[in-house]
Amino acid sequence: MHAREQIRQALLPYLQVAAFGPRVYPSRVRAVDPARLGGPCLLVACGDELIASGPGEPSALQQRTLEIILRIVAKADLPNLDQQLAEALLQLEQALVAAGSLGGRLPAGLLPVSVQAGIDESLEMPLGTLQLICHVSYSVYADAPDRII
After folding, report:
1. What's the DSSP call for residue 39?
2. Is the CATH code 3.30.2000.10 the one for domain 3-141?
3. Are 46 and 67 in contact (CB under 8 A)?
4. Exposed, middle or buried, 126 (CB in 10 Å: 0-12/13-18/19+)?
5. DSSP assigned state of 144
6. pTM of the shown model
C-alpha cells in the first residue's frame, strides 16, 4: 500500500469523535445524501503531494509533503448550521492534536494550513461544508514509496 494511503488509514481511528460518530468516510467522492444525514459527517481524502528528490538514483531519498483534506458536511437547512460546523471543527482539531505523530509514523505530525467554508448547492437539499486542509511531511526512497522512513 502506498505511503499516502497508509497515512490516511492510520489517521481514521483518531477521527471517530462525538461530532461524527460512525460517519467518518475515507473517500473524496462519497455521495452524501442530505436526507439521510443524521448529523455532520467527515470525508477524509489525500490531495496533492509535493516531492523533492535527491539525485536520480532508484534508491534516492524523497522528501514528500502530502495534503490531507478533511471535509465536514452537514445539512444546510439547520438553524444552527454554523454552530454545528464550528463544533465539529473544534473536535476535529482536538483529535488531530491527540493523533500527534500517528504512533511515531510521522515525527512532525499533521500541520493544519487552512479552513475553507462553503455551501454545496448541487443537491436538492443544500449542504454546509467546512474543509480543513493539513500538510504532513514524510520521507521514502524512490524505489520504495510504500515504506515511510
Report:
1. S
2. yes
3. yes
4. middle
5. B
6. 0.88
Grid cell for residue 128: 454546509
- Among residues 113, 106, 119, 118, the alpha carbon closest in space to that of 132 is found at 113
Residuewise pLDDT in 10s, the chain (149 residues):
999 999 999 999 889 888 888 888 887 666 677 667 778 889 999 999 999 987 667 678 999 999 999 999 988 777 788 898 999 999 999 999 888 888 777 877 889 999 999 988 777 777 889 999 999 999 999 899 999 98
Report how far Cα 97 is from the mean position of its chain's Cα atoms: 13
Domain map (residue ranges) of the chain: 3-141
Quickly list H helices, the chain.
3-11, 81-99
